[in-house]
From TrEMBL, chain A:
The electron transfer flavoprotein serves as a specific electron acceptor for other dehydrogenases. It transfers the electrons to the main respiratory chain via ETF-ubiquinone oxidoreductase (ETF dehydrogenase). Belongs to the ETF beta-subunit/FixA family. Residues 23-213 form the Electron transfer flavoprotein alpha/beta-subunit N-terminal domain. InterPro entries: ET-Flavoprotein_bsu_CS (IPR000049), ETF_a/b_N (IPR014730), ETF_b (IPR012255), ETF_beta_N (IPR033948), Rossmann-like_a/b/a_fold (IPR014729). One of its GO terms (molecular function) is electron transfer activity. This is Electron transfer flavoprotein subunit beta. Keywords: Electron transport, Transport. Heterodimer of an alpha and a beta subunit. Its cofactor is AMP. GO terms for biological process: carboxylic acid catabolic process.
TrEMBL record, chain B:
Residues 3-181 form the Electron transfer flavoprotein alpha/beta-subunit N-terminal domain. This is Electron transfer flavoprotein subunit alpha. Pfam families: ETF (PF01012), ETF_alpha (PF00766). The keyword Transport applies. Its cofactor is FAD. The electron transfer flavoprotein serves as a specific electron acceptor for other dehydrogenases. It transfers the electrons to the main respiratory chain via ETF-ubiquinone oxidoreductase (ETF dehydrogenase).
Length: 250, 309
C-alpha cells in the first residue's frame, strides 16, 4: 500500500515566539523554522512500515509557502519516496479544514492505504486536521497513536488517552495521528540529503484541487499572555515550610 | 443560541471536565447536554442535575460505549440540526470527536478556548501558550473545545433538566474497541487536583521518583505530575505528563521538583495559582514563573520538607 504523510513547516520548537507589537500575530521574520515535531514522528513511522514490508511507497505533502520545499526535502532525506508541495503565498495561513480538503483531494487521486499525520502542529495547536480528513474521507481515525500495527486489511492503534491507553482496530484505509511516544525519528544522513535532492517533488496550488482556502476564522488580535509576577527565593526548607503553611494547604 | 455540550463519562459517572464546558456554553445561551454511551442512564440522571441545563439528550446504544468518533460524530451531526453550537471539553475524547463533527458540518473548529468574548468571539492559546489569540468565527454553526482549567465548574446539584432519549445510526462499521489499560490511582485526578507535586528528569529513575515525590504528594493529598523528560525516561506513565502535549493543569499549588521549566512544560502549568520550584540550578527558567523558589539539592530538600510539613 501507499502511505500519505502530510508535514507542516513551523517555527522551531526551541524558539520562544515573540508577539508582534501591533498585535497582528507572531513575528516569524528571520526565525528558525523546522518540520513540526509530530510530523517527523509520522514520517518515521511510515518509513518503519515500509521497512517492515507493509508499505511500498511513501508520499509526503506540505501545504505552505515555497520554503516548505525544505521541509519536504527533509522528509525525502529521511526516506520518503516523493513529495507534493501545494504552494500558497508567503504569510498565508491555511486553516485545518482547508488543509483537510486539499488532503482529501490528494487522497482521492493517490488512494493511500494509510494517512499518517502529527497529532497537532506546535504553532496553531489546533489538533484538528487528521480528524477532519478522516471525516471528509468517511474513514476511521486512530488519534494520538502510541503504537501502530498494520495487519492485512486493518490497522491496530494503541492510543494515548486521559488516564491511560486504549486500543482500537480500524478498517483500512485509515487515518492515524501520531503522539510523542510513537517512535524516535531518525536523522537524515548527508548522503541521503544529497539523494533527496533528486527525488520527485511536484508543485501544485490549492486551485489545482478546487479548494477554497479563504479563512473561516478571523484573528482579531494576538497578545502576550499575562505575565506572572516575579516571586521570591527562600533561603532554606524552614522558610519554605512556613510559606507553604501560610498558603493553608498543609 | 442553543448549545449542545458533550458529557464526558465512563458509562457510570459523569466526569468533572463536563462542568467547565457547561459554564462556557452558558455564556452563549441555552444549554443542552448529550450523554452518549451504553447503559449510561445513571450518567444522564447525574447530568440533569447540573445547574442551567435545559435538556439532556440520552443516546444509549452499545455502539457508543467507548465514544468511538466514527460512531459518535454522525449522532452529533443529527442533533446539530437544531443546535447552534457543539461544545466539548478539551479532553482526549473531546479532541477526538469535535473536529470530525466540524468537518462533517463544514465548519472550522475553535480549539481549547480560554474565554467567551462574544457570540462568535473567543480567546485561545497558540504557540504553546506563548501568545493568546482573539478569534472570530464566520461559520453558521460553532464547534468548540473548552480548556477546563479556564472556566469555573458549573454547580452539579441544583438543576432539574428533563431527559429525552435519542436514537442514532449506531455502529458505522469502520472501527472497533479492542481494550484499554487505565492506570488505577487513589490520587486526585491531575486536571482537577488542588495541589500537584511534579517531578522532572533530575529524579534519576522510576524508583527514585517514587521515593522522593510520592511521600510529599501523600502528605499534601496531592496529584502527581511529571515533565516530558521524566515520562520519556520511563519514570512514570505518560498520562502523568504536564505540558503542551500532555495535560494542562491549573491547581491552587504546583510544586515543580527537578524541573528546569522548558516552554513545553510551562504551557501546561503556568496558570497555577501558586508555583513552587525546587531546583539546584538557580538560573533554571522555572524560577522566572515560580512564586516561591528554593535552590538546592532536591534529595536533601524534599525529604526534609515532607518531614516538616
Amino acid at each position: 500500500m501507499k502511505i500519505l504523510v502530510p508535514v507542516k513547516r513551523v517555527i522551531d520548537y526551541n524558539v520562544k515566539p515573540r508577539v508582534k507589537a501591533d498585535g497582528t500575530g507572531v513575528d516569524l521574520a528571520n526565525v528558525k523554522m523546522s518540520m513540526n515535531p509530530f510530523d517527523e514522528i509520522a514520517v518515521e513511522e511510515a518509513i518503519r512500515l515500509k521497512e517492515q514490508g507493509k508499505a511500498e511507497e511513501i508520499l509526503v505533502v506540505s501545504i505552505g509557502p515555497a520554503k516548505a520545499q525544505e521541509t519536504l526535502r527533509t522528509a525525502l532525506a529521511m526516506g520518503a519516496d516523493r513529495a507534493i508541495l501545494v504552494q500558497v503565498d508567503d504569510g498565508t495561513e491555511v486553516e485545518p479544514l482547508a488543509v483537510a480538503k486539499i488532503l482529501k483531494a490528494i487522497a482521492d487521486e493517490e488512494q493511500p492505504g494509510l494517512v499518517l499525520l502529527g497529532k497537532q502542529a506546535i504553532d496553531d495547536d489546533s489538533n484538528q486536521t487528521g480528524q477532519m480528513l478522516a471525516a471528509l474521507m468517511a474513514r476511521p481515525q486512530g488519534t494520538f497513536a502510541n503504537t501502530v500495527e498494520v495487519d492485512g486489511d486493518s490497522v491496530t492503534v494503541k492510543r494515548e488517552i486521559d488516564g491511560g491507553l486504549e486500543t482500537v482496530k480500524l478498517a483500512l484505509p485509515a487515518i492515524v495521528t501520531t503522539d510523542l511516544r510513537l517512535n524516535e525519528p531518525r536523522y537524515a544522513s548527508l548522503p541521503n540529503i544529497m539523494k533527496a535532492k533528486k527525488k520527485p517533488l511536484d508543485n501544485k496550488t490549492p486551485a489545482d484541487y478546487g479548494v477554497d482556502t479563504a479563512p473561516r476564522i478571523k484573528t482579531l488580535k494576538v497578545a502576550e499572555p499575562p505575565v506572572r509576577q516575579a516571586g521570591i527565593k527562600v533561603a532554606d526548607v524552614d522558610e519554605l515550610v512556613a510559606k507553604i503553611k501560610a498558603l493553608g494547604i498543609a | 443560541m442553543k448549545t449542545l455540550v458533550w458529557v464526558e463519562h465512563d458509562n457510570a459517572h459523569m466526569k468533572d471536565a463536563t462542568l467547565a464546558a457547561v459554564t462556557a456554553a452558558g455564556k452563549l445561551g441555552e444549554v443542552h447536554l448529550l450523554v452518549a454511551g451504553a447503559n449510561c442512564r445513571a450518567v444522564a440522571d447525574e447530568a440533569a442535575k447540573i445547574a442551567g441545563v435545559g435538556k439532556v439528550h440520552l443516546a444509549d446504544n452499545a455502539a457508543y460505549e467507548h465514544a468511538l468518533a466514527e460512531n459518535i460524530a454522525p449522532l452529533v451531526v443529527d442533533l446539530m440540526g437544531h443546535h447552534d453550537a457543539f461544545i466539548c471539553p478539551a479532553t482526549t475524547t473531546g479532541k477526538n470527536i469535535a473536529p470530525r463533527v466540524a468537518a462533517l458540518l463544514d465548519v472550522m473548529q475553535i480549539s481549547d478556548i480560554l474565554s467567551v468574548e462574544g457570540d462568535k468571539t473567543f480567546t485561545r492559546p497558540i504557540y504553546a501558550g506563548n501568545a493568546i489569540a482573539t478569534v472570530e468565527s464566520s461559520d453558521a454553526k460553532l464547534v468548540i473545545t473548552v480548556r477546563g482549567t479556564a472556566f469555573e465548574k458549573a454547580d452539579a446539584t441544583s438543576g432539574s433538566a428533563s431527559i429525552e432519549d435519542v436514537s442514532g445510526a449506531g455502529d458505522a462499521g469502520l472501527s472497533s474497541f479492542v481494550g484499554s489499560e487505565i492506570a488505577e490511582s487513589e490520587r486526585p485526578e491531575l486536571t482537577s487536583a488542588k495541589i500537584i507535586v511534579s517531578g522532572g528528569r533530575a529524579l534519576k529513575d522510576a524508583e527514585t521518583f517514587e521515593q522522593v515525590i510520592t511521600p510529599l504528594a501523600d502528605k499534601l493529598g496531592a496529584g502527581i505530575g511529571a515533565s516530558r523528560a521524566a515520562v520519556d525516561a520511563g519514570y512514570v506513565p505518560n498520562d502523568y505528563q504536564v505540558g503542551q502535549t500532555g495535560k494542562i493543569v491549573a491547581p491552587e499549588v504546583y510544586i515543580a521538583i527537578g524541573i528546569s521549566g522548558a516552554i513545553q512544560h510551562l504551557a501546561g502549568m503556568k496558570d497555577s495559582k501558586t508555583i513552587i520550584a525546587i531546583n539546584k540550578d538557580e538560573d533554571a527558567p522555572i524560577f522566572q514563573v515560580a512564586d516561591l523558589g528554593l535552590v538546592g539539592d532536591l534529595y536533601k530538600i524534599v525529604p526534609e520538607l515532607t518531614e516538616k510539613l
